Amino acid sequence: MDFVPNYMNSTTIGLLSLILFCLFLYNPFKYFQGKEAPTVAGAWPILGHLPLLRGPNTPHRTLAALAEQYGPIFTIKLGSKKALVINNWEIAKECFTTNDMVVSSRPRLVAIELMGYNHAMFGFAPYGPYWRELRKITTLEILTPRRVEQLQHVRVSELQSSIKELYNLWCSKKGESGYASVELKQWLSHLTYNMVLRMVVGKRFFGCENVKDEKAQRCVRAVEEFMRLVGVFAVGDAIPWLRWFDFGGHEKAMKETAKDLDSVLGEELEEHRQKKKKDLGEKVDEFQDFMDVMISILDGRTIDGVGADTMIKSTVLVRICLNYTFSFARNSLQYCFIFQCCNLGLVSVN
User: Fold this and answer.
1) How many degrees, rounded to 5, is the angle at CA 157 between CA 154 and CA 162?
2) Can you spell out the DSSP letters for 27-79?
3) Taking the domain 135-344, which CATH number applies?
4) Could you tell me which residues come within 8 angstroms of residue 230 by beta carbon, excluding any fewer than 6 positions away?
5) 76, exposed or middle or buried, with CB in 10 Å at 0-12, 13-18, 19+?
6) How far is Cα 226 from Cα 116, in angstroms, rounded to an integer?
7) Tens of pLDDT along 244-279?
8) Mean pLDDT for all residues in the chain
């Protein structure tokens, strides 16, 4: 009497086992899964494809050659980190429109951790509540067309002051030929720094009377070292467990630069706060520099565990570096400056 139920149980178990085996073997759901990008062959066990990028060709030429072999999208291993390489504008557009949430964050670099107040710098901070809130504040309150228009007189006045100083130098050093030798590279560098620092902290560091000012030189060295170290390859970015070796001494240099930058920015922040207390209750000019605006908006606030001082100093540092980079990238400013000097007869262009 029990033969039929036992037979049915054995048949059911057998059919289920056969179905599960077929599903495991063929996996029909794989057709509904996303196709992964091909991975470049030849990765080393620990270093990944880093030796490949160190070859005789520059990295962008190496990646271009890999794109011809593997297609417009492929992956490589930078140490223990996996990187997706895109060499097609349509795929890049899809990444930053349809799948923008996936690529909205930024990698946690050693340089930004040590010199960027532990990833508190706007533009380098990872995607999250802190980045979204700081982005809203900067785009709506700080980096607006009205703020840029308010600072137009700073750029104009600095350019006029530099031309006037150059004219005075020409008057004092001109020879019988009527010309004076001037190192325009240094002059343009000082002009750029004066423009940037007046817009950001409200003061100019360079002039005829204080070119050798220790604080100005310390600020310039720290900013230039920061920009250099951000582009340096740190072993800890690719292979975290080798970070404590500090090959090349980059992390030591980053810590020293971070200390110098924090010292300069801390002094300026304290000066602005003291000035704000003195001006309390008095009539204040409409013009406010970048740090004044940041203090008015962020002082006393904490966003996602980051204090006001850290947010102000990190955001001011980003503004200084961006303005400095863009100012040097604007060849039109240099041409305009030299053209004005030519009109005044200060320089001769053959």
Assistant:
1) 120
2) -GGGGGSPPPPPBPS--BTTTBTHHHHTSSS-HHHHHHHHHHHH-SEEEEEET
3) 1.10.630.10
4) 109, 111, 112, 115
5) buried
6) 9
7) 888 889 999 999 999 999 998 998 899 888 888 776
8) 79
CA distance 331 to 245: 41
In terms of Cα–Cα distance, which of 70, 64, 61 is closest to 42? 70
CA pair distance 153, 36, nearest whole angstrom: 53
Tokens of 65: 């050659």
Strands annotated E in 99-253:
none
280-316 per-position pLDDT tens digit: 655 555 567 888 888 888 888 899 889 999 999 998 8
**Single-letter code of the amino acid located at 56:** P
Beta bridge partners of 306: 303
Domain regions of the chain by residue span: 3-104, 135-344
Which two three-digit tokens encode residue 193?
A: 């720094």
DSSP β-bridge partners for residue 78: 48, 81
